[in-house]
Amino acid sequence: MTTPSLYDRVRERKFLLKAWRVIRSNAAHSGNRETRRAAEAFEDHLLANIQNIQRRLKNRKYRFKPALGIAAPKGKGKTGKRAIVVATVADRVVQRAILDVVYRSAMERYERVKNVHFLNSLAELRRSSGTCSVRRKSAWPGWRLGAGQCGPFCWLSYAS
Fold first, then answer.
1. In 3D, which of 131, 110, 97 has the Cα closest to residue 7?
2. Is 38 exposed, middle or buried (0-12, 13-18, 19+ CB in 10 A)?
3. Residue 1 lies in a domain
4. N or C: which end of the chain has fewer CB within 10 A?
């Protein structure tokens, strides 16, 4: 029995639905009305949207849409606005699923191998809050992972 590739695992419904739950929770706590509405609209046809994402990923036809720039008000007691970039709900679901799969794979490797070099690499990445490239048989060209307070792999971006 062969192990599914990271790309195959991202397409699995369980990872997409898990990612959706995180995105839905984030949207529910968002101060931006448009973000909440977009998440509600996505949820209205959740299974169809997840199946659409799965189909496009399977056919390698999924393309990330350009992100939208928004000027959001600053926090309480502060004047002015802050610029933020918001991706579509579907893009956020796919990005989160990728992050979850890559993180899980790294943690499985950590548990399985307990390799000193691997542990040192994770520790260095965590200390530096730097980035590393994802390398997996060219299935993830251009993707970058980052470390922060949440763990060794807590953010993901695509460098075009």
1. 97
2. buried
3. no
4. N
Helices (H), the chain: 6-10, 13-28, 33-44, 46-58, 89-113, 116-128
Q: Quote the pLDDT of residue 140.
A: 47
Q: Over the chain (160 residues), what is each successive 10-residue block's mean pLDDT? A: 82 94 91 88 97 95 86 82 86 92 78 54 52 42 53 52
For residue 83, is it within any domain?
yes
- Of 130, 158, 123, 126, the closest CA to residue 144 belongs to 158
Residues written for the chain = 160
Indicate the pTM of the whole model.
0.65
Which range marks the domain in which residue 100 is found?
Answer: 6-158
Structure tokens given for 96: 């989160």
